[in-house]
Every structure is written in C-alpha cells, then in structure tokens.
Amino acid sequence: MSLSLNIILLKGLLLTLLLTYASIQDVKTRQIPDSLSVVITTLGFIHFSPLFSLSGMLLTGIPYLVAAVISKGKLGGGDIKLMAACGFVLGPVGGTIQSIIGLTLVLFTAAGIGIKSGYQSANQTSLPLAPFLSVGGLFAFIMLQL
C-alpha cells in the first residue's frame, strides 16, 4: 500500500474511534468533552489545506450555532463544537454530507418514536445527537474517499 493510502486509513480509523467515543459520552452524560473536539480538529492537519479546513469548520459549525440560538439552548455547545471540528476534517462538502445524513437519521428516529409512542412522546423525547452525527461523519469520510 502506498503511504498516502496508509495515512487516509489511519485518519479514518482515528476519526472512527473519536466519533465513537463522542457518541458514547453523549449517550451516557449528554455532554461531549471539549478536548474531544480539539483532538478531532487535529486530524484536519493530516493533508492540511487551510481553505478546505477553515471553510469546512465555518460552513459546518455556524448552522449549528444558529440552531442553538434559535432553539434557546436545546442544541448543546458540544454538538456545535463537534460539528465544527468535523467540518475542519471533512471540509465543506463532507461536513454538509455529515449533517444531511446525521440529521436525517435523527428525523427517522423521532418519527419512529412518534409512530410507536405518539406525537407527544416524540415531542418530549430528547435525543443525543452525537451518535447520529457520528454515523453521518463516517459515511461522509468514506464517500469523500471513493
């Protein structure tokens, strides 16, 4: 295998491990450690391109910040930082793909809860976002490599 392929595989493996850890922490504690977002951001320095990484960070993170302000705090700061970090790694297209896949999974899950338990139950249920966003991030990473 070439060195470039080995680096991509290493980056993908590390991203997988870090997003898995973020998901576990979000499910257990409903918090994503700030240090985790910092470590994910450092993955963006592998094959670093300033325009790619910074535009990804902004275009991926800012919509979550706006959503947190509009929802009056129902979206946590950890989710915002996680998505900004992932945008730094995946770039603007990858971050957008991650958001679309992750948020679609959240909608399907909420719809399933609504169908099973009723709209009121679904409306009152708080879901940790990191597991859904992590799945979206891993799919985005794979799609970018194809």
Describe this structure in words.
The chain is mainly α and about 150 residues long. The chain has helices spanning about 5-30, 35-45, 50-70, 75-115, 120-125, 130-145. The longest helix has about 40 residues, at about 75-115. The relative contact order is 0.16. The model has no long low-confidence stretch (mean pLDDT about 95).
Q: Report Rg.
A: 16 Å
Report the helical percentage: over 70%
Shape: globular
Structural class: mainly alpha
What fraction strand? under 5%
Count of separate DSSP helical elements: 6
Q: Calculate the mean pLDDT score and round it.
A: 93
The total count of strands amounts to 0
Summary tags:
mainly alpha, 6 helices, globular
Helix and strand arrangement:
Layout: H1 3-29, H2 34-43, H3 50-70, H4 77-117, H5 119-124, H6 130-145
Helix pairs in contact: 1-2, 1-6, 2-4, 3-4, 4-6
Gist?
The protein is mostly helical. It is 83% helix and 0% strand.
